[in-house]
Design goal:
Length: 668
């Protein structure tokens, strides 16, 4: 049953903005409009009620008309000498007489037949000075308004050092831990801080101290800010939210002043929680920039370090910060006593993607055939924001096809839209270009299906999507956290498929393999420099992970010799040439399958993984994978290739040049 709103709430709804309080700018604007309307009313309304016209006469004309019986009434104002009244023909008149009024003229008017003479002697000061008072009030109101505006500007200049943090109470935001799906361990660690603030005696009895700072670390879109909003909804204590960029200004010292003001305000309302989003904007390593120790950012960071655990540390103030760049933060900020806990908020795994999808699809009409579990299995590597976007894209696609419910095909199209890009079906390609693109994508698809350690083949299309003219899509059958050397080499070989296919068919190359070569070179270089997958380099890692914008690598020289640099380049070239040789050997062996895939793509433009596998097997004369197809054709088929992928390698013979082998450990 709904409770009728009271009069106060009803009045609030009549105001601009509903229940929200009116802003000072709105109040000033409303006051100005009211004053202008009042003045216009005083000036205009009296004239609206005067329905008769008034004729202005000279004094002599009035006396002459009175002698000729042309005046009916005469009202004489003794103070101003103004005579008004009505003529015999009914017209109103007015004239300015002498002051004081001449007695003989009054006698003339009185002795004239049918003239009624009366006197008006206004003696009220209010009536006399009212017109002047109106203008005086208008002038005073304008001066007050100008003074208030100037005072507001002065206060804005003087308050530049005040914190811009927003304070939240228990009513907002409404987000709680129940609205954050998954991340059970993360929520447990954060909820301990909330529980400590609600019931500190329980922890103090056993001697436990509250963490002064909690750092949420994770990739973009994993829900760090949402977790902070959930803390605000659960805490029941004052919650201050501020972005790291809010501390930065063009004036040196403003950031440090705002930090002091923020912690002073939070300390007055302790226990309290301070949330700093994107803390890497002010918490980067000191001494890395060009400005030195007098840089505004470094002064802000120094003040924050002092407030969190300095000579006079804050009591009862917990700082929660979020960043996706923990490697750039200053070490003094990360030590115990400041940010005591670093909580990793990773990309959700399979068990966490399902509840996230359920939260975002809770209020949406789903077709009974939709299996969110299959959608979760088919979306590895997606963050919470990606999953929310996926559900929204599926809903938009359902609207485009005029459906009342979201079906499985909508999720399939939405996933392709998110992972491969928007369809560019209006782009017109020449027949020669379409054929070359078809061979290029067929080379990728054939190697993805034949090689053992590549991800299962999902879909091939030569319809331009996003920035690509064609796409070969593979999906991992399960979440993968580390990659073996064989998996990396098969990935390199698969990306070589498009370039090698063009070389086998046309005998020359095109620009279509630019992105493949760039990604392959980067991956091969990391294999050599960072992961020790080279016999010549051995178990050493070369190169720094620091970013140039920190100023650390701006003037930094490499930490290895020219000879080592040449060895690294040679090893990268060797790895790439080996995988190109593998791709040539496999595509030469399965050339009939390559041509069959190309013909199917030219005819249908898009084919799924199962169709591609069938074409390759028929062209090969026998199944390439006797234990089952290594494909994923739809969301419902995710995971069907698990058994086939765990078999022993029984693929078509390929040439594997001699490469790096694990060293033999000496006997103990």
């Amino acid at each position: 049953m709904n409770t009728p709103p009271d009069e106060k709430n009803s009045f609030k709804r009549l105001l601009p903005g509903g229940d929200k309080p009116m802003a000072p700018e709105s109040r000033r604007r409303l006051l100005t409009i009211a004053i202008v309307a009042f003045v216009l009313g005083i000036l205009i309304i009296p004239s609206l009620f005067s329905s008769k016209t008034v004729k202005t006469l000279s004094y002599s004309t009035l006396l002459r008309d009175a002698r000729h019986q042309g005046v009916a009434t005469a009202i004489i104002n003794s103070n101003s000498g103004v005579i008004s009244g009505q003529l015999a023909n009914g017209t109103n008149y007015t004239t300015n007489g002498p002051v004081p009024v001449i007695t003989a003229d009054i006698t003339t008017l009185r002795t004239t037949d049918n003239v009624t003479v009366t006197f008006a002697n206004p003696s009220s000061l209010l009536t006399t000075f009212l017109p002047y008072m109106v203008w005086i009030l208008i002038f005073v109101g304008f001066m007050m308004f100008a003074s208030r505006q100037a005072r507001g500007q002065m206060n804005g200049m003087m308050s530049v050092g005040r914190s811009k943090a927003k304070q939240f109470n228990q009513d907002r935001p409404k987000t709680t831990f129940a609205d954050v799906a998954g991340y059970f361990g993360v929520k447990q660690e954060i909820s301990e801080v909330v529980e400590f603030l609600k019931n500190p005696a329980r922890y103090k009895d056993i001697g436990a101290l509250i963490p002064k700072g909690i750092l949420l670390v994770g990739p973009p879109g994993t829900g760090k800010t949402m977790l902070a909003r959930a803390v605000a909804g659960e805490a029941g204590v004052p919650f201050f939210s501020v972005s790291g960029s809010d501390f930065m200004e063009m004036f040196v010292g403003v950031g440090a002043s705002r930090v002091r003001d923020l912690f002073a305000t939070a300390r007055k309302q302790a226990p309290a929680i301070v949330f700093i989003d994107e803390i890497d904007s002010i918490g980067r390593k000191r001494g890395a920039g060009v400005g030195g120790g007098h840089d505004e950012r470094e002064q802000t960071l120094n003040q924050m370090l002092n407030e969190m655990d300095g000579f006079d540390p804050s009591e009862g103030v917990v700082v929660i910060a979020a960043t996706n760049r923990p490697d750039v933060l200053d070490t003094a900020l990360l030590r115990p006593g400041r940010f005591d806990r670093q909580i990793v908020v990773p990309l959700p795994d399979l068990d966490e993607r399902l509840p996230i999808l359920q939260v975002h699809a809770k209020n949406k009409p789903l077709d009974p055939s939709v299996s969110l579990e299959m959608v979760a299995r088919g979306t590895p590597g997606m963050s919470g924001a990606d999953l929310a976007n996926l559900v929204n894209e599926a809903a938009l696609h359902a609207v485009r096809r005029h459906s009342a419910a979201i079906g499985m095909e909508d999720f399939e199209m939405a996933r392709d839209r998110v992972m491969m890009g928007q369809l560019r079906d209006t782009m017109v390609l020449m027949d020669e270009e379409r054929e070359r693109i078809a061979f290029h994508e067929s080379g990728h698809a054939l190697l993805a299906y034949v090689l053992d350690k590549t991800d299962p083949l999902h879909k091939i299309t030569i319809i331009p999507r996003g920035m690509a003219l064609g796409v070969t899509m593979t999906l991992p059958e399960e979440d993968r956290h580390i990659m073996s050397r064989q998996h990396l080499e098969d990935s390199l070989c698969m990306r070589m498929g498009g370039r090698v296919a063009e070389l086998l068919i046309y005998g020359d190359l095109s620009t279509g393999a630019a992105d493949d070569l760039q990604r392959n070179t980067e991956l091969a270089r990391r294999m050599v420099r960072e992961w020790g997958m080279s016999k010549e380099i051995g178990p050493m890692a070369w190169g720094s992970n620091n970013q140039v914008f920190l100023g650390e690598d701006l003037m930094h020289t490499r930490d290895y010799s020219d000879h080592t640099s040449q060895v690294i380049d040679d090893e990268v070239e060797r790895i790439l040439r080996e995988q190109e040789s593998r791709a040539i050997e496999v595509l030469t062996l399965h050339r009939r399958g390559l041509e069959a895939l190309t013909r199917a793509l030219l005819e249908h433009e898009t084919i799924d993984g199962e169709t591609a596998a069938q074409l390759i097997d028929e062209a090969h004369g026998e199944p390439v994978h006797p234990e089952g197809t290594k494909t994923v054709s739809a969301l419902a088929g995710v995971g069907a290739a698990s058994a086939a992928s765990r078999r022993s390698a029984q693929v078509a013979p390929t040439v594997t040049p001699p490469g790096w082998q694990p060293p033999t450990l000496p006997a103990v």
